[in-house]
Design goal:
Largest sheet: 5 strands, antiparallel
Helix content: under 10%
Strand content: over 45%
CATH architecture of the largest domain: Beta Barrel
Order of helices and strands: EEEEEEEEEHEE
Number of helices: 1
Shape: elongated
């Protein structure tokens, strides 16, 4: 056949998709949707009647789960939309460095050191103050489409 050697550059991930298709008419309020390639939480859905071109349309108003921006999209209800795989994991807070990175304890006993304090100033201040007071804090980390961010905090009592 051929004496040529082929070299392939490994550029793919493990094959897990960042989104999955879902029919627009089945997406409800408080669900998730991908608008302009951003993972968003749906805050409002309205559906128009079928027009002369035959499709009822869904109007989505959603808020980006990482930066809080409001996004809108209109999709025919019979068409598919991309829905992000959204995961939420709780970690125990161990330390906060001067440059804003946090050190978190995972379930298996290792540490996770690649997250910054959240961009939400009120939440970041709450985490810093609670840590300075010596409270035992658990943070919720939301991840979707290759991004992760701390989005909630729980106080489980003094250390």
């Amino acid at each position: 056949m051929s004496d040529e050697e082929h070299q392939f550059e490994a550029q793919a991930d493990a094959g897990a998709s960042k989104t999955f298709p879902q029919q627009a008419g089945t997406i409800r309020k408080n669900g998730y949707i991908n608008i302009k390639n951003r993972p968003c939480k749906v805050v409002e859905v309205s559906t128009s009647k079928t027009g002369k071109h035959g499709h009822a349309k869904c109007h989505f108003v959603a808020i980006d789960i990482f930066n809080g921006k409001k996004l809108e999209d209109i999709v025919p209800s019979s068409h598919n939309c991309d829905v992000p795989h959204v995961n939420r994991v709780d970690y125990q807070l161990i330390d906060i460095s001067e440059d804003g990175f946090v050190s978190l304890l995972t379930d298996n006993g290792s540490t996770k050191d690649d997250l910054r304090l959240p961009t939400d100033d009120a939440l970041a201040t709450q985490i810093k103050e609670g840590f300075a007071e010596g409270k035992d804090l658990v943070v919720s980390v939301m991840s979707a489409m290759g991004e992760e961010q701390i989005n909630a905090i729980k106080d489980v009592g003094p250390k």
